[in-house]
Polyamine aminopropyltransferase (Halobacillus litoralis), 276 residues
Amino acid sequence: MGTWFTEKQTDHFGITAKVNRSLHSEKTDFQDLEILETEEWGNMLVLDDMVMTTERDEFVYHEMLAHVPLFTHPSPKKVLVVGGGDGGVIREVLKHSSVEKAVLVEIDGKVIEYSKKYLPTIAGALDDERVEVKVTDGFMHIAKSEREYDVIMVDSTEPVGPAVSLFSRGFYEGISKALKEDGIFVAQTDNPWFKADLMKQVHADVKETFPITKVYTANIPTYPSGLWTFTMGSNIYHPLQVSDERFFEIDTKYYTEEIHKACFALPKFVKDLTKE
């Protein structure tokens, strides 16, 4: 039968993948880190027994976290990614020629190190000259920043361990101050099947800070339930009021202009969670 890895997504449900071998495993200062070579999904990054990304389906998450806010903002020049040490979001950010600087703030340097080694197609852009990598606490970096960024993307794990503070109202208020007046914020906000209460709380907290708060979805097969949500906050720009002239062709596998508009059409049970 071979070796199988199972992420227990609830007390009664999990997702399983056949593993050829473990490429690396260690307990870092912040979490348990493992890189698995899987039969179905290629190399897989696992943190605290939760799937973070795989070579086969990573493009969906990284494209949707990056391009929806970047096409919504008319001219993003300085972008911050909090978390995301695998480098996938940074790779997508750099596809926008208007971006002059992309800052990655990742608390666990080991994620960066082993992503570069075992996930080079994801992490390859981290050495780009437009990228500044800071191995430090994202919450504290936000707290020290003021009117600095055009777009801030929070690419965090689920709200456990070092990521707990990244799902708090205080963090969203700090993001509002770190953004320029017309800045845009987006975060991954888990799934509506198993984390409905988290989604509701995050949406309420973001809405207290940003007058324009919108939820959108994507299909990511190795994430719990496959239906994943993102929450965007803005003072000025509405993601569904983007001029057609704003869109330009980039190299993607999931994101398109049509997806940009369609991803905000929520299933009713998700819409009910956000009271939109």
Remarks:
- The chain has two domains: 3-54, 58-274.
- Residues 215 and 271 are 9 Å apart (CA to CA).
- The radius of gyration is 18 Å.
